[in-house]
């Protein structure tokens, strides 16, 4: 049949707790060993064990890393994960004699770091997992199959395979700043991070990074605006990720640029690229934040 392209039940994002309620309830109702939930394009997945607990990408990385180690296929004795992965994963891997190599957030950086380190396994807490022996990118179905393989070969339940994974409390704070400067130019930040991590005594981490400013987010499309520089002048790069066809993305681009121009009472020039548009002509950081509030 025709692809309908919408998600009538809820946004296809397994990171949101409310979107996992169905798979948890279904796993319990069916008395299943575990259940699997995929995101909209099925490149990542989350799971629920037989007790209804959510199993995220960190847990999948742990059980699959151990299996690769048992098979003698864990290249370099290390796996790759992002700065967002819980330190509990790092501690559990350390106990198994496996190194965790950190990289910036995003499966793109996971893949790049895996290639550089020739790692066989890497991924994100969000459910993106890359098995380099099979595919160069994340695939939710492959991830589910590899977890099933570990369960079948060990004869252990999902709960037992990750029973020693203790996820430490993890908090994310977004802070608005008056001016964006490279963090290395602000020694006070580095000093504060060092002091905090000293107090954690190796049982915690502090990660400070520059974030993208999200201007709009809906179930059917996402608009992000990031600061860039073009020709020595400040500009903003507009990126639209849409679940619809390219013609809808083009329409969204035109509408967004027109709306911003109207709100700022400033003509904006746009240079469209593949899925992105360069905005120039006076869109300042505080003005973008004001648009977000609307």
Level of helix content?
A: 25-40%
Q: What is the molecular shape?
A: globular
Report the sheet-strand fraction: 15-25%
Unreliable stretches = 212-222, 270-277, 281-294
Cα-based radius of gyration, to the nearest Å = 22 Å
User: What average pLDDT do the residues reach?
Assistant: 77
Distance between the termini: 39 Å
Number of strands: 12
> What structural class results from the helix and strand content?
alpha+beta
User: What strand order characterises the main sheet?
Assistant: 8-9-10-12-11
- Provide the succession of SSEs: HEEEHEHEHEEHHHEEEHEEH
Plain-language structure description:
With 294 residues, the protein is of the alpha+beta class. Helices cover 37% and strands 21% of the residues. It is built from nine helices and twelve strands. It is globular and about 55 Å long. The model is unreliable at 212-222, 270-277 and 281-294 (pLDDT under 50).
Based on the model shown, name its key terms.
294 residues; disordered C terminus; five-stranded antiparallel sheet; alpha+beta; four-stranded mixed sheet
């Amino acid at each position: 049949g025709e692809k309908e392209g919408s998600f009538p039940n809820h946004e296809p994002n397994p990171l949101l707790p409310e979107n996992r309620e169905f798979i948890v309830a279904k796993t319990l109702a069916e008395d299943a060993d575990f259940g699997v939930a995929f995101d909209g394009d099925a490149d990542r997945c989350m799971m629920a064990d037989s007790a209804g607990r959510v199993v995220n990408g960190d847990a999948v990385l742990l059980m699959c890393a151990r299996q690769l180690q048992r098979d003698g296929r864990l290249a370099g004795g290390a796996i790759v994960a992002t700065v967002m992965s819980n330190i509990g994963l790092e501690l559990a891997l350390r106990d198994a004699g496996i190194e965790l190599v950190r990289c910036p957030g995003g499966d793109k950086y996971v893949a790049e770091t895996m290639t550089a380190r020739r790692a066989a396994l890497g991924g994100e807490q969000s459910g993106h997992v890359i098995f380099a022996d099979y595919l160069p990118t994340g695939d939710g179905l492959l991830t589910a199959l590899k977890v099933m393989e570990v369960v079948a070969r060990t004869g252990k339940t999902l709960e037992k395979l990750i029973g020693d994974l203790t996820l430490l409390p993890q908090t994310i704070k977004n802070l608005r700043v008056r001016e964006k400067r490279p963090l290395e130019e602000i020694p006070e930040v580095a000093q504060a991070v060092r002091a905090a991590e000293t107090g954690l005594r190796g049982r915690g981490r502090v990660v400070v990074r520059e974030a993208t400013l999200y201007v709009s987010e809906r179930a059917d499309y996402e608009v992000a605006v990031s600061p860039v520089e073009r020709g020595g002048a400040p500009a903003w790069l507009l990126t639209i990720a849409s679940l619809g066809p390219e013609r809808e993305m083009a329409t969204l681009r035109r509408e967004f640029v027109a709306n911003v121009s109207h709100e700022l009472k400033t003509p904006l020039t746009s240079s469209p690229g593949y899925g992105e548009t360069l905005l120039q002509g006076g869109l300042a950081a505080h003005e973008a934040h004001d648009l977000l509030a609307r």
